Amino acid sequence: MSSGQPPSPPPPLPHVLLVSAPFQGHVNPLLVLGRRLASEGLLVTFSTAPHAGLKFKHGEEDDAAADGAGRGALRFEHMRGEGLWAPDDPRYRATDDVARHLDDVAPAALAEIIRRQADAGRPVTCVVANAFAPWALRTAGAVGVPGAMLWTQSCTVLSLYYHYFHSLAAFPSGDAGPDAPVDVPGLPALTARDLPALIHAPEELVWRQAMLSDIASLRETASWVLVNTFDELEHAAIQALRAHLPVLPVGPLFETEDGGGGHDVCTAWLDAQPPRSAVFVAFGSLVNLSRDEMAEVAGGLASTERPFLWVVRDDSRDLLPAAAAASGDSNTRGKVVPWCEQRRVLSHRAVGCFLTHCGWNSTTEALAAGVPVVTYPVWSDQRTNAALLVDACGVGVRLPAPTTRDALRQCIEAVMKGTLEGEDIRARAEEWKGKASAAVADGGSSCRATREFVGAVVSIGAGN
User: Which three-class secondary structure state does DSSP give residue 256?
Assistant: First the structure.
């Protein structure tokens, strides 16, 4: 017999709030992680301080996505008010100013988002925040919400920072020679020249301060450390660091399918090139080369007499030599564009070499695409990533800095010509492509780690 009582409403879905600093290289992997978590049945909301330079949907609250849990749909509810700059504020172009601004005003804005979720009947079960946003996990802890960090660089770099800032290993001093050895448990052979730049950066640098804040409090603020890597790539580093931190390798974090987007101008240009003939050049969203460096890169590319696709941001276009700036005309061998879908370009059959600054997103995308690399690291973690690509993975060569056109030509020829060295590099690149693909496939190492985290979040939700 019916009791006449209406059925109880279903319990709210476990709800993960993703929080990112508003930089493209931070946003991209967190969005991919969010879609994977949503595909596993969690309700996922993404938040940042949106601005005109970010390339993704700046939607406000999307209630329809709440019904998409289990199908990869995300909600977007961005930080607003509480003294935050407007999305069109030009100060977002100065990364140091953005970091200081968010440290001051973002905690209140984030706490307000968490409160609104509870009031709307979808309380936040866990906050996942990128590194370099230490205010996010501090704020989550202050309101009683468990936190996880998404480390968007390599586990090797995380281990270097952790051991350095906690004085767990001896490091060469800042004035040591570039060949001074670095010995950290679980890491490959490294030297002083391979250390990430923030280790010996000035203490007043805002990014060093953010890093120190992250690392110093990580064991207290993060119940999990999700790392954008995969076990096959950094197995020893992951195992060694687990003695100190609850590390879960959940990468590589980029879309595993093409994702549509149509037949853009880059794809159309690449379609016209022979297989493995083109050099792809991209230095990321933050690296700034000098006018002289741009001239040497342009001269080196021209001297190879190979087709090239070069991404040059609008804010650097005036540094190009006139001949390179005109690239893209029908009578030129190369094409210069302000932006491209990098993952799609690297996966194109025409690309035979990637000249890269070695940001971690670019590093993992190159490995997953099986493309040989010429490394030209500039700052941050890029020197360490270059060492992993060249020495540990064996998929490329180093371009000396400051570069010359002759050096660039020689490096490109080393990985693209049919020499024994070039063939070995290409073979190893193809092997890493298979390993990266297997890691994110159903049942792969990163898939299992992601599901372990999802299970933990579900358990927290069931206990509330």
Answer: coil
* Nearest to 110, CA basis, from 73, 74, 147, 68: 147
The answer to whether domain 15-256+442-463 has CATH 3.40.50.2000 is yes
Q: Which two tokens stand for residue 73?
A: 């749909």
Q: Is the pLDDT of residue 60 over 50?
A: no
For the record, the structure tokens of 295 come out as 């001239």
Predicted local distance difference test score (pLDDT) of residue 63:
46
d(CA 55, CA 233): 29
The amino acid sitting at 238 is: I
Peptide bond into 146 cis (omega under 30): no
Spell out a b/e string for 184-219, using b for 16 or more CB atoms within 10 Å of the CB, else e: bebbbebbbbbbbbbbbbeeeeebbbbbbbbbeebe
3-state SS of 121-177 is CCCCCEEEEECCCHHHHHHHHHCCCCEEEEECCCHHHHHHHHHHHCCCCCCCCCCCC
Whether 335 and 269 have beta carbons less than 8 Å apart is answered as yes
The predicted-structure confidence for 348-394, as pLDDT tens digits, reads as follows 999 999 999 999 999 999 999 999 999 999 988 999 999 999 999 99
User: What's the CATH architecture for 265-439?
Assistant: 3-Layer(aba) Sandwich (3.40)
Q: Is 76 helix (H, G, I), strand (E, B) or coil?
A: strand
Enzyme catalytic residues: 26
Give 117: exposed, middle or buried? Use CB within 10 Å, 0-12, 13-18, 19+: buried
First vs last Cα of the chain: how many Å apart?
31
For residue 75, the surrounding DSSP H or E stretch is: strand 75-76
Tokens (6 digits) for 183? 């010995």
Residue 148's DSSP bridge partners are 128, 224
Looking at residue 167, what is its pLDDT?
Answer: 96
Per residue in 302-348, pLDDT (tens digit) is 999 999 999 999 888 998 888 776 665 444 689 999 989 999 999 99
Integer Cα distance of 206 and 212 in angstroms: 10
Asked if residues 23 and 286 have their Cβ atoms less than 8 Å apart, the reply is: yes
Give 12's strand partners.
none
In DSSP terms, which residues pair with 310 in a beta bridge?
Answer: 281, 336
Domain boundaries, the chain: 15-256+442-463, 265-439
Position 285 confidence tier, pLDDT thresholds 50, 70, 90: confident
The rounded percent of the chain whose pLDDT value lies above 70 is 91
Which residues in 260-332 belong to E strands, given as ranges? 278-282, 308-311
CA-to-CA dists, residue 169 to 197, 383, 407, angstroms:
17, 20, 36
* Angle at CA of residue 258, ends 56 and 378, nearest 5°: 65
Question: Model's pTM, two decimal places?
Answer: 0.92
